[in-house]
Amino acid sequence: MTRVTLIAFTLFTLIGCGRYYAGGAPVRPAPEPTPFAGGEGRNTTLIVFGAGFCGDCKVDFPKVNEGIAALPEPLRQKLEVKLFYVSGDPGLVRPTPDAALAYKEAHFVLATPFADLPWMWSNFKSLNPGVPLRVPHAVVLDEEQKVVKRYTSGKTSFVPSEIVAFVESRLRGK
Prior knowledge:
- The chain is an alpha/beta fold.
- 36% of the residues lie in helices and 21% in strands.
- It contains 6 helices and 7 strands; from the N terminus they run αβββααβαβαββα.
- It has helices at residues 2-16, 55-69, 73-76, 97-107, 122-127, 160-171, and strands at 20-22, 25-27, 44-51, 79-87, 112-115, 137-141, 147-151.
- Strand 4, helix 4 (97-107) and strand 5 form a beta-alpha-beta unit.
């Protein structure tokens, strides 16, 4: 009897996780739209991926933000910056739009925040097939939503000044 109760409790817990309840009925929130392309008149999109557990993100993202803020206004108008918050802290905490907004406000104020939903790391995987799931990570997209450059996690591969320099060169048409 205890084994059956334990199995039933486990199944109930697993099935019930991730659902929001309103008035006793299960309600699943609509998935957040995840557009990759820039807005009207924008020819370059910088997408960064970060997480609550990522110490390097918290150090590097403000540097990228400062570099982009220092660009001349006509260039910044051609750029869309998006932040995908892939996970909370610890790493198994599901991202939420509110957490993504708080993360953006703390580390990358120029970006439009998104919780990387549906979870786990779905947008990261769609833009980076076969790339290890590590943050910080960034991709630069052209006007056709094609990846033109990737910056993977690592001290020599995710360098804020190099990211800003590449984005600036694209915006200047070089």
